[in-house]
Each structure stands twice: as structure tokens, then as C-alpha cells.
């Protein structure tokens, strides 16, 4: 996290996870408070920023929304390098997306900034009847408190937990 001026901080945040997990939906909720039923798949990566007042400081989040398609995997280090925080998103209706999320946690633990704050967010909680990743499974030893959210139903991101 870079200190820009008195109580003004810049924080780089990166979104990682399988394609279709909901990374862009999460950013759209955070930045514009919106949800799109047909969100287009991200190509390469997209950049957004959002400024929030946190206690007596102003934090400007510089957000990299990466593309989940496998062919973009090799670009990811460019986006997570130097990041203060990473949110790894998976889709609770897809076991593959959860397997991918676990790989991201491992990759960041090996290659990411050691002080990086990581959160694991199981998205699409509104599709509970199609759930493939149980709440127990999602409690990873290296990320023990993950919970699920629905970006569609505008549940708070605070419900996803820190690793
Ligand atoms: N039912 C439901 N659908 C969701 C939710 N969040 C996102 N979606 C839908 O899931 C689809 C994929 O969401 P995206 O945000 O594009 O996923 P992504 O992770 O950015 O995907 P890539 O850019 O391909 O890596 C979109 O059609 C969204 O509308 C949710 O909480 N519930
Ligand atoms: Mg996307």
C-alpha cells in the first residue's frame, strides 16, 4: 500500500479466478453498484478505480479485473505483483472453479507479495440448489474462513473472508 499524502492511500487490488466465476460482476458491484445478467467475458484484464473513506483515511483502490480464461494465465503475475490485496472468486455451482481458486491461493502464497491480504469468495449463493462446493469443503486450511456471496442479490463483500 502506497502512502500518497496525509491519510491518502493507494491500494492495488487484483481479482483472480476461473472464467465466469463473477470477478467482473464483483468489480461492477463495488465500483458502480450494478449487476448485469449477461456480463461479457473479460479479455486480458480491465482496470477500475474506486475511492473509499476508511476510518479517517481515504483509500483509492486500483483494481485489476483479470480474465479467467486459461490462455491468459501467464499474464496474471503482471497484475498480482505488488498488489496489497487479492480476491479469489469461485462459483459455488462449479467444482472446477473451486479447484482453480485453490490453485490461485497456492500460487499467490508462493509467488505473491508476502504481505498481501487474500480473500476467497464463493459467488452465486443465490443458486444454492445447484451448489457443488459444500460449505465444509470451502473451509480451506490455508484460507479457513471463506464464505459465499451472491453478487446478483447484492450481498455485502464483507461476507467473503480473509485467508
Ligand atoms: N446467478 C448469479 N449469476 C451471477 C452472479 N455473479 C455473476 N453472475 C453471472 O455470471 C456470469 C459471469 O460473470 P462475470 O462477472 O463475467 O465472470 P468473470 O469471472 O469476470 O469471467 P471472465 O471475465 O470470463 O474471467 C455473468 O453472466 C453474470 O451475470 C451471482 O451472484 N449469481
Ligand atoms: Mg470478467
Give a verbal description of the structure:
GO terms for molecular function: GTP binding; GTPase activity. Keywords: Nucleotide-binding. It comes from Liquidambar formosana. Residues 130-163 are annotated as: Disordered. This is Rab5. By secondary structure, the chain is an alpha/beta fold. The chain has a single domain (2-162), classed as 3-Layer(aba) Sandwich (Rossmann fold), CATH 3.40.50. 20% of the residues lie in helices and 32% in strands. The protein has three helices and eight strands; from the N terminus they run ββαββαβαβββ. It has helices at residues 23-32, 76-80, 95-111; strands at residues 2-5, 8-17, 45-54, 57-66, 85-91, 117-123, 147-148, 161-162. Strands 1, 2, 3, 4, 5, 6, 7 and 8 form an eight-stranded mixed β-sheet that branches. Bound molecules: guanosine-5'-triphosphate and magnesium ion.
Short description:
The chain is an alpha/beta fold and 163 residues long. The chain is built from three helices and eight strands, in the order E-E-H-E-E-H-E-H-E-E-E.
Amino acid at each position: 500500500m502506497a502512502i500518497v499524502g496525509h491519510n491518502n492511500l493507494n491500494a492495488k487490488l487484483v481479482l483472480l479466478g476461473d472464467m465466469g466465476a463473477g470477478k467482473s460482476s464483483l468489480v461492477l458491484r463495488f465500483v458502480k453498484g450494478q449487476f448485469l445478467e449477461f456480463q461479457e467475458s473479460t479479455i486480458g484484464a480491465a482496470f477500475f478505480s474506486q475511492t473509499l473513506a476508511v476510518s479517517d483515511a481515504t483509500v483509492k483502490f486500483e483494481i485489476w479485473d483479470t480474465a479467467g480464461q486459461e490462455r491468459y494465465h501467464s499474464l496474471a503475475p503482471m497484475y498480482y505483483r505488488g498488489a496489497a490485496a487479492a480476491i479469489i472468486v469461485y462459483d459455488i455451482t462449479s467444482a472446477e472453479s473451486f479447484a482453480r481458486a485453490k490453485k490461485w491461493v497456492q500460487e499467490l502464497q508462493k509467488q505473491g507479495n508476502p504481505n498481501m491480504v487474500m480473500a476467497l469468495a464463493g459467488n452465486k449463493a443465490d443458486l444454492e440448489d445447484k451448489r457443488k462446493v459444500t460449505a465444509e469443503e470451502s473451509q480451506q486450511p490455508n484460507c479457513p474462513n471463506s464464505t459465499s456471496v451472491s453478487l446478483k442479490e447484492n450481498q455485502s463483500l464483507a461476507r467473503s473472508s480473509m485467508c
